[in-house]
Every structure is written in C-alpha cells, then in structure tokens.
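Researcher: I'd like a candidate sequence for this fold, 127 residues long. If you have to choose between options at a position, lean toward the conservative one.
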C-alpha cells in the first residue's frame, strides 16, 4: 500500500482516506541572545533544540471522523512513535503534542462533511 507517512501504526495517505496536504518542519540551531546592559546582545549556543513537525489536511465524512479518533487514541497512548515516510526514510521517534480539528457542513446526524485537521509532533530524544 502506498503511503505518505506512517506514525507508529497510523498511516497517512490516499489509500487510508487520510492524506496530509501540508507538512511544516522546524529545526532550531540552538542559539539564544543574552541581553547586555551597555551593548548589543551576546549570542550564546545552548545546543540544538528538538525538531517540530506540523501536518495538516482535510478529511471527509464519517471516515475522517473515525481516522481522527484513531489518531487521538494513539496520542492517548502517551508514547513516542516511529515516523517513516513513503520512500522508507526513518525520521526517528516522535511524540504527539496536539491533535486539532475544525468540522463544517455538519448534517442532521452529527456527521461532518468536511474536517480540517492539524497534527503537531515533536522529536523524542531520551539520551
């Protein structure tokens, strides 16, 4: 089965009716500025910070609602999960920091016709 990304047992992609449309990756260089009273701030290296990922997309109808419930169940596991992309690269272990959704066009039984979702992950390092 083709996939965009797998987070533990959760698969993102068209085949699972839950693809992501946007992925943002943030890497910190570990620099901070220390304020000095009589001059410019001093740059100080504190070590590289943890990487962050933000994935977002749209899902439809009850299938999308079920997939978000599965993603929340994974988050409730309170464990780091391996992240592997569709070409086989292992991105290491990541923790789920936030799952958010916005439902619209809700029909009379409570099913959302359109769900916009966002998943925020942070690199997990336990050296």
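Model: Candidate sequence:
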């Amino acid at each position: 089965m083709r996939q965009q990304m797998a987070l533990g047992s959760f698969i993102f992609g068209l085949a699972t009716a839950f693809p992501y449309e946007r992925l943002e990756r943030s890497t910190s260089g570990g620099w901070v500025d220390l304020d000095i009273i009589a001059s410019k701030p001093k740059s100080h290296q504190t070590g590289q910070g943890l990487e962050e990922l933000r994935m977002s997309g749209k899902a439809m109808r009850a299938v999308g609602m079920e997939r978000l419930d599965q993603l929340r169940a994974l988050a409730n596991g309170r464990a780091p999960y391996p992240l592997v992309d569709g070409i086989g690269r292992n991105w290491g272990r990541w923790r789920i920091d936030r799952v958010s959704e916005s439902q619209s066009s809700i029909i009379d039984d409570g099913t959302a016709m359109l769900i916009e979702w966002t998943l925020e992950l942070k690199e997990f390092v336990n050296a």
